[in-house]
Amino acid sequence: MAMDINNHVAFHEAKFIDQNGVLRNSSVPVVQELARQRLDFLPERFIRVSPTADPIAAPSSELHEISHIEVPDPLPCIDMSKIQLGDDLEDRDRELTKLAGAAKDWGMFLIEKHGIEPKILDEVKDVVKGFFGLSFQEKKASVGSYLSVDNMGYGRNFVKSEDQPLDWIDRLTMKAAPRDATQGLRVWPQNPPNFREAVEKFVERARKICDSLLHALAETLSVDGQIFIKQFDEEKSEVNVRVNYYPPCPRPDLALGITEHSDASALSVLVQFEASGGLQVFKDMKWLTVQWPVDALLINVGDLMEILSNGRFRSSWHRAVTQRDVERFSVALFYNPPSEAEIEPLKDGKSNNNHHGYKKVVVGEYLQNYYKISPTPTKQAIKFAQI
Ligand SMILES: O=C(O)CCC(=O)C(=O)O
Ligand SMILES: [Fe+2]
């Protein structure tokens, strides 16, 4: 009989709606607690079989190989100071061209000289490590529940069935905007006491970067610079923040930290802590490990941006792998237009063989479908918005 975890492990209670629309519960082991036991084997529920050869086309049934190919050309890195200050117009144009290529070919890029002070990022790292440094019971006591099946809160993973392979991750997800989104809910950790304040400072700054990028991305397409930003709203746009903790994993060749996905957002901003080497992007039919200097931020083009740009920009298909002796943290911020907004794609989507045109969608309806069907082995959620 295969060995499995012992009885002392704590569990998250995951609620999910199954394929027949029935609300179900599944007990998901708390990965951080499992990792504390320094197992020399991977519990069965985390072992996965290959989902994909080509995630955009047909899934393959081959055994999943979790490879570690370094990106041959490093991920494009955009100097935000050249875009935001724009002292030198030629330099700025070159940077915009690089940005356009990155958003089109990779759906993912790094940004440097972004202007967020190291102190703000250090405070986020401190509170996140403080939270994950608590015992499981203390964590549960520190953060309340969203009382709904929407992947928010502590330990809410994308669980859809009892037999789906689980991700080797422990995570915490919060709504940071609109400000009243969490009114009456005690869903921000109370411990460390400055958790919310530290994360909100980062959110405020990261949001400005997103706005600059929305403007710059529009410029690269020679359309009105406001065309994307105008679909956002100072008060009502949504910002969700997810903290990902990947403990050391006994079998990085058999488990994933986060299963492959595209972000549903318009744009995502990611910070990683000291450790690198976990994020992979699917490009040119291969999974490539991203080289990500720790002080750079990473931007993902999300599905909503793919829709807004009518397919000119592509949301990246990415995943996180685990490492044997390394723990890794990342913080992801997801920036969306207001939930009730009906977003309109740019006119005249460029046509090529792979291109699909997009139609107007209500953001909240897009997200609802995305969460309903995720995780999927191929890039499927975006079909909801295709003509
Ligand atoms: O940990 C990472 O680098 C990736 C996280 C991610 O893709 C997500 O939170 O959506
Ligand atoms: Fe992601």
From TrEMBL:
InterPro entries: DIOX_N, IPNS-like_FE2OG_OXY, IPNS-like_sf, Oxoglu/Fe-dep_dioxygenase_dom, Plant_2OG-oxidoreductases. Pfam families: 2OG-FeII_Oxy, DIOX_N. Belongs to the iron/ascorbate-dependent oxidoreductase family. Keywords: Iron, Metal-binding, Oxidoreductase. Residues 236-337 form the Fe2OG dioxygenase domain. The keyword Oxidoreductase applies. This is Protein LATERAL BRANCHING OXIDOREDUCTASE 1-like. PROSITE patterns: FE2OG_OXY. It comes from the Eukaryota.
